[in-house]
Amino acid sequence: MKNVTFDVAALIMLAVLFVTVVIRKMTKGTSNRLFLLQIVLAAISTSFDIFAVTLDNYNSQNIFLLNFAHMGYLIVHNIHPFVHMLFVISLTDTWHKIFQNPAKIVLFILPYGFDVILLATNPFTHLMFSVENGYTHEMLFHTLYVCIVPYILLNVVYVLQYRALFNRRKIFSLFSMTVLSFIAVVLHLIFPELLVECFAITMSLFIVSAGVLRPEDYIDSFTGLYKHSAYAHDMKRAFFNDKHVNIVMLNIGNYNTLTSMVGYDVMTDVLNKIAATIADVNASLHGDADLYFLDRGRFRMVYSEKDRDKAKSAAEALMKELKKRANINGLDIYFTPYIVLARCPDEIESFKSLMAFGQDFHEKNHYSGQVMLASDVYDANAFAIHNNIDTIIERALENQKFEVYYQPIYSISSGKFASAEALLRLFDEEHGFISPEILIPAAEKSGAIHKIGEFVFEEVCKFVSGDEFIKLGLNYIEVNLSVAQCMHGDLADTILNIMRKYNVSPESINLEITETAASYSQRVMTENLNKLARAGLSFSLDDYGTGYSNMKRVIQLPLKIVKLDKSFVDEQHNPKMWIFLQNTVKMLKDMKMEIVVEGIETREMVEAFSNLKCDFIQGYFFSRPICKAEFIDFIANATLGTSSEE
Ligand code: C2E
Ligand code: MG
Ligand code: MG
Question: Which protein residues touch ligand 1 with a CB less than 6 Å away?
Fold first, then answer.
């Protein structure tokens, strides 16, 4: 007597699984549908098994029913490895790789097709099994196992080949079908009365459902769209498979402002409405896109390669809808929707660049109210630098490619150049000139800033301790310190050690800290600055007027100089700004601070700020930052010029 307990248990479990899958809304998309199909097939094969075994147990003599039950079971049961393989292909999104080639399709179907033919003709051939004197295996029965092997092998190879797309949990889950089926077959061979094969498949479907298909991992519960993690996963997979897609990227430019105006709860409703608008636009174009809500007002619609026109229409329709006035919480507001249409990987070549570009393209482009094309707004070189900045910095440090340039600073009272600012320069052989605006923040993140900072400081110390510098008659050189440098416990000691090494007196150096750095009230920074001030070094407050100054902090710092940022200079024609400048200068002077104006480009600006009684002027009007040799010539000539005039 064969025991159907495991089969009955499997059937109950499959019913539960089916219900949970439907409740969890795992019914959309190819992978979900293939998973549902596996549950249904498992239920059918288990039912056939129960039917067949019951007939056997009761010694049925109905040849037709016996053939039907055993054949049905074997045909449906053996389709599992085949469908499971389709499921794995859909998870890797590589249909286009397998099914564009008819030979591959035939090869793929052949083993299972062969099984089906053998089983369907068995009532006449009796090659697989016979039922006349009880159910017995015949000569070719083991062909069934042989034909399954290619699918199992392909499954293993495929998962390993695409392991970059899966985490360990998923890989384990996807292998569970093979491992459990193998154990079940062995058990069945040892204990023929134990029918555990359907139970094994059911168990593995449970494992896959828990480990692979987790809608809570990728569907946002508020908007019902796919989440950021799903977008990251799907895009990574598309780049990995060289699958071409058209992406409509929407960033709401004024998301932060709106949130601070109406609060988080209302903004959640607003985002839901935007999500609904996107879903409507998609539906009106026959719903071919995958829709994602990333975070903070960022949404994406992803179309296939052939749907370029649809993507374009969707982008335009979305722009039109979102430009309309909206009423939120009694306020009439306008969104500033920034929409970019990008063809990947043609226009944005890598996953990393796509993600970095999508982060803040709304901050880097002017709002035009028009759909922008990635070919116009995406600068591949800038992103290549961004993505490879660590390697670029390492290479530059290794090959000594960093240079220090100097920009002269003019003293209004003495009519001479009194000092200069040291500025970092890097010319990379692959990417060309790399601006410190990109370099410094990246170096801060990677920690390379400390080495770079030491290099700049050492170069300056070498320079100011040399005879040439003394001859130039300059008072000091200003050196920039970034936030990360100021937060490093060793900063003061490093600086003092380098100065000792080159015998540099503290009057020859002025350290610039930015307004943002100054407003951090961090203990390490305060200790560093106080230690350096005690050693006789002076400080400038750089970029004054650009950050949100914590005035209390600024006043507490040992500052000698304040550098008015270029943005003040650019606004000088605004009468209110001029009044503000006059009073700012007066206030700083009353505090006994010296004032440098940055970014002076014209004679008119020089005159205006001289009249304001600022002390120093720095800008392209006198000179751009130049290399040391040019700088020495520049100052020597300027001094010669002034002395010959005297
Ligand atoms: P910063 O310290 O405010 O330096 C002044 C920036 O303004 C320099 O840009 C300079 O080239 C530019 N500039 C000077 N005069 C004019 C002008 O008349 N018109 C215009 N449009 N620009 C002018 P640069 O060299 O690109 O440096 C950018 C920033 O990178 C610096 O701003 C500074 O914060 C940082 N930086 C540069 N070198 C270093 C360094 O060695 N260490 C650290 N920590 N930061 C550095
Ligand atoms: Mg500076
Ligand atoms: Mg500055």
Answer: 407, 423-424, 435-437, 440, 453, 456, 480-482, 512, 542-543, 566, 598-601, 618-620, 625
* Closest residue CA from atom 33 of ligand 1: 480
Number of H helices, E strands in the chain: 30, 19
Of the candidates 374, 398, 387, 375, the one whose C-alpha atom is nearest the C-alpha of residue 431 is: 387
Distance CA 631, CA 406 (A): 6
Q: Are strands 298-304 and 290-295 parallel, antiparallel or unpaired?
A: antiparallel
Whether the CB-CB separation of 454 and 481 falls below 8 Å is answered with: no
Q: What atom of ligand 1 comes closest to residue 424's alpha carbon?
A: 38
Q: How many whole angstroms from 566 Cα to the centroid of ligand 1?
A: 11
Phi/psi for 302 (5° steps) reads: -115, 120
State pLDDT tens for residues 235-293.
998 998 888 999 999 999 999 999 998 888 888 889 999 999 999 999 999 878 989 99
Instruction: Give the global pTM.
Output: 0.66
SS (H, E, C) 341-409: EEEECCCCCCHHHHHHHHHHHHHHCCCCCCCEEHHHHCCHHHHHHHHHHHHHHHHHHHCCCEEEEEEEE
Say how many CA atoms lie within 13 Å of 446 toward its Cβ.
19
- Tokens matching residue 641: 């010029």
Q: Which of 539, 540, 587, 596 is nearest to 565 (CA)?
A: 596
State how far the Cα of 350 lies from the Cα of 38, in Å rounded to an integer.
35
Is the Cβ–Cβ distance between 405 and 629 less than 8 Å? no
Strand partners, 614: none
Q: Is 391 exposed, middle or buried (0-12, 13-18, 19+ CB in 10 A)?
A: exposed
CA–CA separation, 68 and 70 (whole Å): 6
Calpha distance 631→637 (Å, rounded): 10
The single-letter DSSP state of residue 226 is B
Q: What residue's CA is closest to ligand 1, atom 25?
A: 423
Closest by CA position to 284, among listed 250, 249, 316, 327 = 316
Distance CA 621, CA 601 (A): 4
First to last CA, the chain: 120
Query: Which atom of ligand 1 lies nearest, measured to the CA of 601?
Result: 18
- In eight-state DSSP terms, residue 2 is -
- Nearest protein CA to atom 42 of ligand 1, as residue: 480
Q: What is the pLDDT of residues 577-614, one digit of tens each?
A: 899 999 999 999 999 999 999 999 999 999 999 999 99
- DSSP-derived secondary structure for 287-323: S-SEEEEEETTEEEEEEEGGGHHHHHHHHHHHHHHHT
Instruction: Give, in degrees to the nearest 5, the angle at Cα 567 between 566 and 568.
Output: 90
Structure-token pair, residue 134: 């009880």
Q: Whose CA is nearest to atom 3 of ligand 1?
A: 543
